[in-house]
Amino acid sequence: MAEQKKIIRVLVLSDQVNAILYSPDILPRFENVDLVLSCGDLPFPYLEYVLTVLNVPMLYVPGNHDRAMHTFDGRTIEAPEGAINIDARLITLRLPHVRPLTIAGFGGSMYYGGTSNQYTDWQMRRRIASIEPRLLWTRITTRRGIDVLVTHAPPYGIHDGLDRCHQGFRSFLSFLRRYRPSHHFHGHVHPAYGYDVAPKMYHGTQIRNVYGYEVLEISI
Ligand SMILES: [Zn+2]
C-alpha cells in the first residue's frame, strides 16, 4: 500500500485572471498541484482551461458577478465544465495517497440590491443551517472540524470593507468557531481597495484573501 501524504499542494484562484495560468506555461510551473479551489468571479472558460491542463480536481463557489455566459457560437455556459460546485455544500474529497478531505463552500456576497448570488447575513445563516446535519455528522465521525472552508466573501471584520457589497458575513465567524477549519480561503476583496488583506488567524483558522492565485501547502 502506498504511503499516505501529509501535505497537499493547493492552487487557489479568485477574482482575477492570471496570464501565466491561462497559457501553456501553467504546466511546468503548477504540475505538482494536487487540487484547485476557486473562490469565484472568474470566467468559466478560464477555469475550464486550468482544470483541463492540470487534470486534478477543481472545486469552486460562484462569486457575486458569476452568471451564465453566452459564447460567440451561440452556446450558453452555465458553469465551468468538469469542476465541482460546492456552493452551500460539504463534500468529502478523496485524493490519491491522502486521507479524505472535508471541504465546505458558500458563494456570493452580501446583498447590495442585485438579483443573484447576493445574500443577507440571515440568508447566509440559513444556507449554512441547510448543511448543518452533515457538518455535525462529519465533526462526530472524523473527531475534528472540517478541513477547508471556501467562500467568495470574507467573514465580518476580517479583510472586509465598510460598504455593503464588501462587508463580510457574521455567519462565517460562527461557522469558523463551530467547525474549526484549518484554512478559510475567500476572494472578493481586491488589494487595490486598500483594506488590510494580510492572512489572519481566527480561532485556529488561517484566513486568506486570494486575488489572482496562490499556491499553498496544507498539512493534513
Ligand atoms: Zn466579488
Feature tags:
alpha/beta, 15 strands, 5-stranded mixed beta sheet, 6-stranded mixed beta sheet, 5 helices, 220 residues, Purple Acid Phosphatase, chain A, domain 2, binds zinc ion
What's the arrangement of secondary structure elements?
Blueprint: E1 7-14, H1 26-30, E2 35-38, H2 44-54, E3 58-60, E4 69-70, E5 76-77, E6 84-85, E7 89-93, E8 101-106, E9 109-110, E10 118-119, H3 121-130, H4 132-142, E11 148-151, H5 170-179, E12 183-186, E13 200-202, E14 205-209, E15 212-219
Parallel strand pairs: 1-2, 2-3, 3-6, 8-11, 9-10, 11-12, 12-14
Antiparallel strand pairs: 1-15, 4-5, 7-8, 13-14
The protein binds zinc ion (ZN).
What would your notes on this structure say?
The chain has 220 residues and is α/β, with parallel strands linked by helices. It has one domain: 4-Layer Sandwich (Purple Acid Phosphatase, chain A, domain 2). It is 21% helix and 27% strand. The chain is built from five helices and 15 strands. The strands form four sheets. A six-stranded mixed sheet has the order 7-8-11-12-14-13. The protein is globular and about 40 Å long. The mean pLDDT is 94. The chain binds zinc ion. Zinc ion binds next to loops.
